[in-house]
Design brief:
Blueprint (H helix, E strand, L loop, with lengths): L11 H8 L3 H17 L1 H11 L1 H18 L6 H29 L3 H34 L2 H21 L10 H4 L6 H19 L4 H14 L2 H4 L2 H20 L4 H27 L2 H33 L7 H22 L1
Helix pairs in contact: 2-5, 2-14, 3-4, 3-5, 3-14, 4-5, 4-7, 5-6, 5-13, 5-14, 6-7, 6-10, 6-13, 9-13, 9-14, 9-15, 10-13, 12-13, 12-15, 13-14, 13-15
Length: about 350
């Protein structure tokens, strides 16, 4: 689901030159999928209602693989943006299905949190693999950026095939009413804002996060939910984010390595908790409603806050403004984390 996403940034200098993209085009190409994660989450709810979560996931993953491979077939920026749009929609459609499938496959809270840790870690593995291996390995093997993008689509299409062969759960039929978000539900907004804080850490400290977050999510996923879902844990995580941010700003150098580890574990905690909460709080079709709405709110909010931080940096010329999303994340976790963690523990 995320394997094709970060294959583009290493290739941007080549794409920039060959397609004549300006800096705004480069920024849009990188940010478009993230915005779509929020905007296109609701079509995922429609697909779950029409076909069930298993089939919706297969359709989403297949869309990711095909559109990613097609990104390199055109020779214009318009075609590249169109296929990137389709890829982002495929990812956005797929993400809400996982909370529903986990709630169907695993009934006990401890297994829901562990399974959530596994699939969220898979997100990060996919991102790191394509970002790290595109330039040193894939591009020299295939020769062109177009072929490099196509290579990363192959494992995605294989995954779609494996999903098609996997056993279906009995509880697959859902109504549109039970999959569309209930925007009047305060838990939906609280959970969406909480989940956005993980993205705010990622975007606000993306120089350090990828390597630090990868092992962290696997470790956090093995921590019992009774520990994750404590008010004190959420408060400690919010305080740790603020402390790590202080270190990065005031003590640059080797200390940023330790801060990167803290950011990674904190972001992993938020992801595991917010990804697991729909299944824990609602379960079944209720998890579908919560998950679709949560993704819509969280990625849209993260995109807007990051955009605002960039505008503040441009206006104030204060480089530290770039870390405002991380500061916002700390405030969100301390404010909302204890409330939602307590609800999950009940």
């Amino acid at each position: 689901m995320r394997l094709t996403l970060l294959a583009v940034p290493p290739l941007l200098p080549i794409i920039h030159q060959e397609l004549g993209l300006d800096e705004k085009g480069v920024a849009a190409l990188s940010g478009l999928p993230v915005l779509l994660f929020g905007v296109a989450a609701l079509p995922g709810a429609f697909l779950m209602a029409r076909f069930g979560p298993h089939t919706a996931l297969i359709l989403g993953v297949t869309t990711i693989g095909i559109s990613s491979a097609l990104r390199g077939l055109g020779d214009s920026a318009v075609w590249l943006f169109a296929m990137t749009f389709a890829m982002g929609v495929g990812i956005a459609v797929s993400q809400p299905t996982l909370a529903v499938l986990v709630s169907q496959w695993f009934k006990e809270p401890r297994w829901i949190s562990r399974a959530t840790g596994v699939w969220s870690n898979g997100f990060l593995v996919g991102e790191v693999l394509s970002a790290a291996l595109t330039l040193p390995l894939v591009l020299p093997l295939v020769g062109t950026w177009q072929a490099a993008l196509a290579v990363w689509s192959v494992p995605v299409l294989v995954t779609a095939l494996l999903l098609a062969l996997a056993p279906r759960t009995a509880a697959s039929a859902m109504s549109l009413q039970t999959t569309l978000p209930d925007w009047r539900d305060p838990r939906l907004w609280q959970l969406g804002v909480l989940q956005s804080s993980a993205s705010l850490i990622y975007f606000g400290a993306n120089t350090f996060i990828p390597d630090g977050q990868l092992p962290a999510s696997l470790v956090i996923g093995l921590v019992p939910m009774r520990v994750l879902a404590r008010r004190a844990t959420s408060v400690a995580v919010g305080a740790a984010i603020a402390a790590a941010l202080f270190v990065v700003i005031t003590l640059p150098g080797p200390s940023t390595v330790a801060a990167a580890g803290v950011f990674g574990f904190c972001a992993a905690y938020i992801l595991i908790l917010s990804f697991a909460l729909p299944a824990l709080l609602a379960g079944g079709s209720g998890a579908a409603r919560l998950s679709a709405g949560t993704f819509a709110i969280s990625y849209t909010l993260a995109f807007l806050v990051t955009l605002l931080a960039g505008a503040i940096w441009d206006t104030s010329h204060v480089a530290a403004s770039a870390f405002l999303p991380v500061l916002a994340s700390s405030v969100i976790v301390i404010g909302l984390g204890p409330r939602l963690a307590s609800a999950a523990a009940q």
